[in-house]
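Incident log, structure service

09:12 report received: a user says their structure output differs between two submissions of the same chain.
09:20 pulled the input from the user's history:
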Amino acid sequence: MGKKENRQLIGLRMRSSEIKRRRYELDKKYGRIGGVCPICGKLIRKPKRGPTARFCSSSCRQAYARRKQAAIEFRKDKSVDLAVGQLAEQANDYREKADRIRNRTLNAQREIKQVRKTSRLACMFQLKTILERDPELIENAPSNGYVAGLMDDIDRQGRSGDAERLLRHNGYTGPMPPAGTNR
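09:34 re-ran on a clean worker, output below:
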């Protein structure tokens, strides 16, 4: 027997690589391998009692914890970015909707203005026609009659006194009809 065998039998110092090789052989022989480290891939020895460890060393455990935390942070960042993106998209949708409503309102206001202008011109034309055909209708107009209502509409849709100015401009010199109920 050589020195090497003596050391092995007596249990004197052995090189660490030799110890690892021997342990591996014994573990394989007696079925004491409990798993594989998910970080480095080393075999994990099953203890005589208790559950098998998940990691081969504390450095692998810490590396696993760092990776897990990084994954959680990534998911958080991704969910925050997703939420920000959705909010930005909703803001754009609301802005577009508000712009459409604003444009419709502006168009409606323009149409109302145009209708009032057209209505005012039609009333003015009717008043001028009455003046040309039968000026006595204006002189004898009652306060709640058609002519007074026509003059009220002209003044309401334009400036106050437009109806009187129209009549005077077209040569009417008679008395103005009394103010209508709407004046």
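09:41 both user submissions now match this output. Likely a transient worker issue. Closing.
09:42 reviewer note: The chain has a mean pLDDT of 82. The two ends are 134 Å apart (CA to CA).
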